[in-house]
Amino acid sequence: MKILNLYAGIGGNRKLWGNEHEITAVENNQEIAKIYQDFFPNDKVIVADAHQYLLEHYKEFDFIWSSPPCPSHSKFRFMTTKMVNESQKRLVIYPDMNLYQEIILLRHYFKGMFVVENVQGYYEPLIVPQKISRHYFWSNFNINPIKINQDNLIKKHHTALSVSRGFDLSKYKLKHRKDTILRNCVIPELGLHIFNCAFNNKQNSLFALSVPSEQKESKP
Question: Is residue 191 within 8 Å of residue 197, measured between CB atoms?
Fold first, then answer.
């Protein structure tokens, strides 16, 4: 099976998928892409704009996972723009609509299985997602409920995060903060659960074909 892993980071979502598939990972930060390649030497890693790569190559894959950048949608960043201390207030920014462009493109043009992941936003989502813990997921298959231990990521040091995410970054000298890189990882167990929902459960895999679109959008 050919898999496209967009905005791959260091590969939190992909960590438990195994090595029997042909996986292409796209990450625009060369430093982070190098770490991904170290952890997953069998994957093809491309340093590029994931949003543009999706548009040009979506037909080549059987399964696509996309995790577009979340800061412009997140509740946390929204709250920091409202801080009383004006000197610490962040600039107000537009929500990045690349997120919804990708959902619409995949829903209407892509013939394989897909999932688009993001954090729960500060606004009501424009397209109804499925929800797990602090995440939104837009997909063309049903994602079974699962309980995920979401510890306090903000307060955790990168050493503790390395243990919880299963990525040892101790040997790397990085421009980016290691704790930030690790916080941006999808929890590997959650990535595996969603992958299994797409392919290991026939009922879930047939969900997109058998259920009317309005009913799928109301699915929790």
Answer: no
